[in-house]
Give the backbone structure.
Amino acid sequence: MEADEATSTSEVPEEFRPRIVAYCCNYCAYAAADLAGSMRLSYPPDVKVIRLPCSGKVEISYLLKALEEGADGVMVAGCMEGDCHFMEGNFRAKRKVRHAKRLLEEIGFDSQRLEMFNLSSAMAGRFAEIILEMTERIKKLGPTPLRKGVKD
Amino acid sequence: MIRSALVIGGGIAGMQAALNLADQGVKVTMVERESSIGGIMPKLDKTFPTLDCSMCILSPFMVDCSRNSNIEIMTLSEVDSVSRENGRFKVNIHTKPRYVLLDKCTGCGTCVEKCPKKFPNEFDEGQGDRKAIHFLFPQSIPQAPAIEYENCTYFRTGKCKLCEKFCEVGAIDFEDKGSTVEKEFDSIIIATGGQIYEPDGRKEYGYGEYDNVITSLQLERLLSASGPTMGEVTKKDGSHPKKVAFINCVGSRDEKVGHDYCSRVCCMYGLKEALLLKEHEPDAEITIFYMDIRSAGKGYDEFYNKIRYEDKIAEFIRARPAEIFENPNKTLSLSYEDTQTAEIKDLEVDMVVLNVAIIPSDGTKELADKLGVGLNKYGFFEKSSFSLGPLDSSSPGIHICGMASRPLDITDSTNQGIGAASRATTDLASERTFPPSAGYPELETDEKRIGVFVCHCGKNIASVVDVKALTEYAKKLPNVVYSEDNIFSCSEEGQRKIMEAVKREGLTRVVVSACSPRTHEPTFQAAIRSAGLNPFLLDMANIRNHCSWVHKDKAEALEKAEILTRMAVARVANLDPLSKTSVGVTQVACIVGGGVAGLTAARDLTRNGYKVHLVEKKPYLGGRLPKLASVYPEETSGSELIMNLIESADETGNLTVYPASEIAEVEGFVGNFEVTIESRDYVDYSCDDCGKCVDVCPVEVDDDFNEGLTKRKAIFKQNTFPDKYYIDPETCTLCGECVKACPERAINLETQTSNVSCGTLVVATGFDAGDPEELLKHGFGSHKGIVTISQVERLLHEEGPTGGDIKKHVGKVENVAVLLCADMRWGKNDYCSRYCCLTGTKTARTLKERFPDANIFVLYENLRTIGIHEDLYKEAQSMGVLFVKYSFDEMPKVSYTNGLKLNVKDQLLGVELDLPLDLLVLAEGGVPVEGSHELSKKLRVPCSGGGFFQEAHVKLAPVDTSNEGIYIAGGVQYPKDVADSVAQGSAAAARALTIITKEALEVGGIVSFINPELCAACLTCIRLCPYGAIAINEDGVAETNIAKCRGCGICTTECPAKAIELRHFEDDQIIPMVEQYLGEVTNGG
Amino acid sequence: MIVGDRKPMDEILEMLEPYENILILGCGTCVTVCLSGGEREAAILAGQLRIWGKKEGKNLNIMEHTIQRQCEKEWVDEMRGHVEKADVVLSLACGVGVQLVAEMYEEKAIYPGLNTTFMGYPVVHGTWLENCRGCGNCVLAHTGGVCPITRCAKSLLNGPCGGSQDGKCEISKDTECAWQVIYERLKKKDQLDWMNSYQPPRDWSTAGDGGPRKSVKIEEVID
């Protein structure tokens, strides 16, 4: 079904459609995503947003769980540094993402599949850009090595 | 006796007034002429400058009005007569026949479908059709159609009655004769709004004659996805316009048609419509004809700059086209004189949009007569005082808000609507009535019966996502027992269908696949609660903002909508019913800042009977106002105005003032804040004004009250409140000389700390005038003749340093220039301060009045004497003040080494002017007050980019902050004039009253919960909680204070024992979403 | 509390190499509080191992369980069911816990997931400082509540030594000289006199060098 839509000129016969989980804070990232909608900005459909009250609500195990379940990429998006609705939740999220990246590297897993972004609720354009950026990055990295049956 | 108020008009101002009155326990009757409340906002596509969908942000407010048990909505109704008895109003309200019985109608719309006749749709500004029986618009409140008598076939021919035949509930009543009821009220709020000018007075533009000359409101309907063309901008012949011209000021600033005021909103809506048009028609060439671009407001100038200079959406031509001709091929030729090149030119376009004026709404005069209130010269409702009584009529008990009194944008209408609520309650006596808590039903069964409701959102979702397919897909998901699709799930009808389905199908959990939970979760929570379900057993899949609006490929969009719905179903299955509990409220307010906004809030709160602690940083009250020689348009000195205000607040005995004081610490939460105030009010009231202290004080500093024109001692006195000497703690060295000299022993140089408890805080710390760094660029401080407007006010003030004779300062006043935008818009401060065009023009006029022979120039980039301040501009012009347009690219150059001179390139004449000057007045803008960031941290209220406090929503919650219970008013939010500060002061008071009129508030819900069995008392959560909401309890384990917990969930992610869960976002409510998303990969192909 | 740090991943992977059914066993007391071996850390390590397993194409079954304390027989006994399902137990307890688990499940492979480091307290959130070595002969009464046995690199009783500079120990600029701290503390208590007195060599027989020590509360022991 996915292949039907493949119009790309690349030689890969079946276009790789990444599956990316985005943990977004309610006040900025999610709001920016809402605004991107209001402004009818267009971006790839490969990211699914999970709304959390604050990026500080992101647990390391949420990040690992998504990868373990076969996500090709995981992203966390919170408010701009200094503008967290809950004061410092986004700094805690930053530390968590950094630590999770180390944990992934320890086991030889490409930590580029995980990234943290900061944006304000008004930055709809940036949201669309981030989605595109992350989608492109994951497309380059290819499908997660964890997904069974996916061969190069 | 129960308090009650009448709100006339159901637009945004009226709704805000009604909601804020109802939330203070006041019974409200809202009378609306149309068949639905909503006013103008439902007609708009988007709102500037954030481009929020107008209907989306309005809809929850409309639904709240209809759901609030303190609000009675009377549509198709008008005030018939009013009389006053025993201090109350007796009002006859006449309701026209709807011919549809509201208590029977289900809003199904079958009648509309069956009605055989179509007529031009007035709601769409005559574009498109509607039936003789119709809903005013899809989201109408009440959700019922009405029959238009004039167009109904039955009424005209005596035959048809198709609607009656097909109505399954017998809701059609052709015998409806309407009704008249008499009701009593304590207070009346006029919120009748304005209307657009139908530009038939401008025949030369061919409106109504040429096919493709339309008004801005018509374009708004064309742009709207729910408009007559479903969001397609088309010409009369159905084709898409390729060249479009917008003409500003049609009917505004236009003596020819009798509206010579500025309509204040048209520049901004014009910019917005140009941007939206470009989005719809990317190839369209857009030209905007303007006189001045008046983008004066928070974020407005930034919006303008982006459209004009960054994105180059349109070409801007400074001209007012003289005439439009329609060519045989229906294209339009405009002839105009470009005022910047003085050339006569022609432009051919295929569509012209007239950015029309706002005028008083029909019936204003009649209503004014019934109410016994006056109208101003433009036919709007007259206020008791423009600056200090912007929400009051001259008749006690009758208040005015929104466009009933002058053209306003949504933000200001909202400010005024909310503010009118606090003005009205000061009139009322006796008790308040609060509806009983809605309750948080328990879950009666463990059985998971999930219902999924898929919303079309008109065409917003349905045009991209196959809604029917999604509804079918949802049926197959685990635990889903029911699913259906709705055109508008959020409409009254949509909600009713959800409620019915919950009951009929025995649903225990609900997913709404629609728009954003950020805007609509409360709506649907309330709906399922009404159906007996716990409101927290709901989740939303955002298939509009995150899907249909951003993805064009229908297959991809459907797939994503399916995944999002699947994830929501997985989450909702594991959600738990939550409840809130009530905590007592400290029914006291604390106001930070004793300027005009803070004092207005203090007056409204104290006169409502509540204690107020007023904290002011300066040793005296009044802020910037008492320094002003005169306030426009009252022509009264600022000190007089402020003293009246202080007196009005003080005489209640409810006001405690803390001068020379600052907020040291704020603890607590909405309903119960603990505020620590540090006071350096060293001189007590036993001071008998002898002044011996001043003689001995060794500290001499610039007198900030005189804007640095004179010196003063650290101990001093001003003609304002309090009436005693005081010490400026900033400059006092605590040497103690004054203490020794004071015969009354009135001085004590110790800092006093007070702790006050309050339920709410209002922040009104104002703005600072002038950015010294920017003013320096014009030589400020280097020449005596270079002064700021604030300084001129002092120099013109009778009690000022020159006794009102400015000549004593500069010698002669023969050549004067007032430089507008001196420190704004072109350098470091890239925003418009909104009030300085007014103060600058006022200064020029006043100087011309005093020195009629002087040459007085006002140098402007875009002259923004918004609203009825346009009067001031005309007045100054007629007196002979010369207005010179300059460009930021060629900033006027000041030289002062060899006499004061100014060189400016006149953009209209194209010549350079060398002006020798006696006086150069720099019109300084407003910048955030020093210490704003520190205060914002203490209050946990964020600042926006520039350093002004951030409102919760720029349009519809302009005095709320993200910290519940803390409100903002006046310059702390953005620079503004006195009238707007006063309106916001009242608005903040009204919001504060919605807290402190209640004895208890509900808390809890989405808060953290610590499992005592798992807690190792390691203190990690206590150390990391940003709100200090967790403490070790009597049992030696950590426990959350649910009134303090804000629900961020940080503790839950740090607890090493995983003993903490955030309700509603628990691990088993999050992880299943991930699993559901990723788990079905093999099914995808 | 007892402080530990998770072992390097390579070491953990090497230990677990032969096994498929792996139980990550957290301990709910000291190592929970020092953020290295509680339920959260067990979950994170389990998640990591699952990703690793999938990446390597292994069919691993990673279980996680945390008990109140791994140094009490009753608690360790209670989780028998969990242990029996596993081929190997990776204990995130301190060395004490690992040993007791190993003792009670002699037939099972029981491995340590942590390096037990010391006894100490957190100076700021996330940083712990060693301050007791359990030497069996406490001198804190004299030293102003600062342990020279633990906090002086040489365990001097008559400090400071010549290596004390600017209040820091010569071993590292980040380490405070314990004797400087003792000096400051005693000064505040007006007990500096003590520093002038000579402390004779202490009795080290109570320290651990004479083999494992035993503590018997005779009033509690039933004969």
User: Anything to note?
Assistant: Chain C has two domains: 2-118, 133-200. Residues 39-55 of chain C form the longest helix (17 residues).
